[in-house]
Amino acid sequence: MTTTTFGTGTTPGLTVQEPMLPAPRPGLYLTARPGGITAHLTADRDTVQTVRALALTVLIAHGVDLESAEAAQLVLSELIGNAVRACGDHVPLVVEVHRAEQAAVVTVHDPLTAAGPRRTATAPDSDQAECGRGLLLLDVLAPGWTVQPSPVGKRIHCRIPTAG
C-alpha cells in the first residue's frame, strides 16, 4: 500500500492507505485517480466482480463510510448491469469511482448514445413490471443522477451522499 495525503490550504490533510491495484490483465485496466480509481473493462463476470470489490475497498480507504460505500457498490452494479443488458456481454465500459466532498461518485461510460435509462409506464412495484426497479434504486441512493453524452457514447453520473 502507498500513503497519500489529501487536503488543501488551511484544511488539514487526510492521510489514507491506498490499496494496491491489481495488475492489468486482458479485459481490465485500472488506474488510480485522486480519491479513487478509473477502470477500463470488458464486462464479464470476473472483471465486474473485481471492479465491484475494488470500488468498495477504495472508497472505504478514502474515508467513505461503509453504508455509503456499499450503496455506491450497489449503484455501480445496477449501472453495469444496465449496460450489459443494453449492449450485450463483453461490452467495453469505463467506470470511475471516487470520493468527493460529502459524496461517493460513481460514473459509468458505455458505447450507446441513444439508449439511456428510461422509466416504463408500469410501476416498478407492480406484479407486471419486468424492469425499472433499478431506476428507482438510483433515485433513492443517488438523487439527481444524470445521463450525458461522452466521448465513448454516454455517461451516467451518480453522487451518493455520505455520512458526516
Give a written overview of the molecule.
- The protein is of the alpha+beta class and 164 residues long.
- It has one domain: Heat Shock Protein 90 (2-Layer Sandwich), CATH 3.30.565.
- It has three helices and eight strands; from the N terminus they run ββββααββαββ.
- The strands form two sheets. Strands 3-4-5-6-8-7 form a six-stranded antiparallel beta sheet, with helices on one face. A two-stranded antiparallel ribbon has the order 1-2.
- A hairpin with a 2-residue loop joins strand 7 and strand 8.
- Helix 2 packs antiparallel against helix 3.
- The longest helix is centred in the middle third of the chain and has 22 residues.
- The two termini are 26 Å apart.
| Uncertain stretches of 5 or more adjacent residues | 1-16
What's the pLDDT, averaged over the residues?
82
What's the β-strand tally?
Answer: 8
The secondary-structure class comes to alpha+beta
Q: Please report which band the strand proportion falls in: under 5%, 5-15%, 15-25%, 25-35%, 35-45% or over 45%.
A: 25-35%
CATH class category name: Alpha Beta
Q: What is the helix tally?
A: 3
Strand count, sense and closure of the main sheet? Answer: 6 strands, antiparallel
Distance between the amino and carboxyl termini? 26 Å
Helix content: 25-40%
Would you identify the CATH H-level superfamily? Histidine kinase-like ATPase, C-terminal domain
Order of SSEs: EEEEHHEEHEE
Q: Specify Rg, calculated over alpha carbons.
A: 16 Å
Total separate domains? 1
Which strand order spans the largest sheet, edge to edge or round the barrel?
Answer: 3-4-5-6-8-7
Q: Tell the overall outline.
A: globular
| Reported CATH architecture | 2-Layer Sandwich
Give me the CATH fold name: Heat Shock Protein 90
